[in-house]
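Below is just one:
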Amino acid sequence: MKRLDGHKLSILVFSFYFSWLLAFLYEGRVLYKIAERYQIEVHTIVFSIMIFHFLGLCICGFWIKTIKNAKSFLIISIISCILGSVFFFFPPTLLWNMTAALMAFMTGGAVAAWGYFYKQFTPAGNRMSTAADVLMGSNLLMIMINIVAVNLHDYMGFALSIAMLLIALYLAVCLPTEINTELESNTEAEIKKEILVRTGHLKRPLTLLYIFIMIITINAGLMYQVIMPAFAAHRLLVSWYWAIPYITVLYLMKHFSQHKNRAYTLYIAIAMIGFCFIMFMILDRSAISFVIINTLMLGACGIYDLFWWSILGEMIELDKNPAKIMGIGLSANVLGVFAGGILGKTIVILNIQAHYISLLAFGVILITFMLLPLLHKELLEIIRNRSYLSEGERGDLAERKENEKDQKTTDKITSDIFKEFMLTDRECEIAELLLNGRTYKMIAAELFLSENTVKTHIKNIYSKLQVSNKTELIYLYQKNKTHNHP
């Protein structure tokens, strides 16, 4: 395994791990096939899985503080899933619910932990490719498991999924945890600080991203509970074609749009979801109809999944805890699928007609259309200024670093002068920024204040110094600097 570097190992570990998750635990075909064997409903189990997977994603990111912690949690999580899976080889008991909940929580934490390996072994700016590889690899393996479970034997497919866990465990043990200094030099660390200054708090763009993910994936929940059961008669076709459009779109996005503006593809995906529900409303339940509807829906899911996985991949550069960013971001995905599943199950129980389902989906699409431009605006500056900036910006940063010592000396002199006029520390800080050429808006962003607050401080500064504008402020500063600090 020494031949594989950390980047390839991290992709393989999570491809094998996620294949088990998709084929079994996360509303997978294997789980439903085993339930059919015992003629039971698994809605309660699926409900608890969603809840505890969501909690694992949200909570574990705050516990996992280092890449070594991430590796340890990943290994424990895989072992827990291997042991927990054993109970599903026996007839259903309360242990099914308990172990499913535990495994769901542990897998949620493991998915969040992957943020560390995602950040460590893939340079910023190239993370879309890594995300595509993980999603394609896990879905290809899932298809193989599904084909065996649906067309050969349910427990044979289940055993194959557990074999994926064993492979993932072996690979996880081999994962390196040394910090790769080649990927993050001191200059790059300074660049990240520059990004934080430019973008300010990440709370607003991240919140918008999470809301967007949650809302758009409501349609995925409807697909699980409404669309797929409508084509249950085409068992063989569903078992292998299920994720083919998804994988195809991921491949195309990875290889043919690396250097293009991909924002337009998000609108294409929204349109594909809309056409999917129109087709579901007007077409019959034949195999051809399934191919059309599934191609539209899963193709759109591929575009959106790659979008937010790659965006989260860039966001982790701006936070020291990538597990927290990845965990909360992907928990929004789970929450959206869960909400859509509840809606879908309600629709099935009430036997609501297809055109009402389509109207509900169009409502979700309309909200998405309204959110997308705002989200794009919030993310644009962050993505433009991601961790590897242009050479010109690197040069500007180096020049500023060279002048940093002199600037600190100047700031000390400035502070001493203004304190002679009884300015507060905050007023001295703002006055120094004014002298350094900052605008009101720039000062507000840098000090995390509102512009009105900055204007009030500047009004007080001018009053204390008995000046009426910035020009007079500069003259007063120069005069006192020459007189008191020759």
Notes: The chain has a mean pLDDT of 82. The longest helix spans residues 354-384.
